[in-house]
Amino acid sequence: MTYARLFAKPFERDQAYRREQTPVKTTAGLPRSRYGPIVRHMKLKDGSSIVADLTTVGRKTGQPRTVELRFLCYQGSFYATSSRVKGKHWCENLIQKPSVEIKARGERFTCIAKQVTDEALRRRILELRDTPPALDRVVFEIKPQ
Questions:
Q1: Which of 28, 8, 26 minimizes the C-alpha distance to 17?
Q2: Which of 71, 73, 123, 145 is most open to solvent, judged by the fewest CB atoms within 10 Å of its CB?
Q3: DSSP single-letter state for residue 6
Q4: Total number of domains constituting the chain
Q5: Best CA proximity match to 125, nearest among 50, 74, 84
């Protein structure tokens, strides 16, 4: 890291670091399994938990926004939960602009997100996530393309 970058503003330092990173593999060309390429390639089982970066598009600025979240893998999709939507910028961004990207274990996946409205699925995800389940949480399905 150069001297100028060490003393640059945090935003500028982060941008310079991102430019230097090597390209990341994508899911293109991976064989599909029953639940899609992620489960097969990353060897994720139903109910497994993973910490990954979620990149959304800001609903006001249009700029990429990244947050680290805990995801649950279930039937080929990632699920994220939140205690509420209002005031949680990543949740509000998901609702406004559902095209997102997940970066996990050195891989990047383009995904489509939506809020889970099926009560049985929402309850199942929350039961897999926590013991005892916090049933008042909001659940988002993030499905790889």
A1: 8
A2: 145
A3: H
A4: 1
A5: 74
**Residues 80-106 as b or e (16 or more Cβ within 10 Å = b):** bbbeeeeeeebbbbbeeebebbbebee
| 61, amino acid identity | T
Q: What type of residue sits at position 117?
A: T
Burial tier of 143 (Cβ tally within 10 Å: 0-12, 13-18, 19+): middle
What is the predicted pLDDT for the residue at 23? 45
CATH code (residue 45): 2.30.110.10
Domain that holds residue 44: 26-144
Would the pTM of this model clear 0.85, i.e. be above it?
no
Q: How far apart are CA 10 and CA 105, in angstroms?
A: 25
d(Cα 140, Cα 145) in Å, to the nearest integer?
16
Give mean pLDDT in consecutive 10-residue pieces for the chain, a chain of 145 residues. 51 52 42 44 77 94 94 91 90 93 88 94 91 87 92
Residue 96, domain member (yes or no): yes
Residue 2 lies in a domain: no
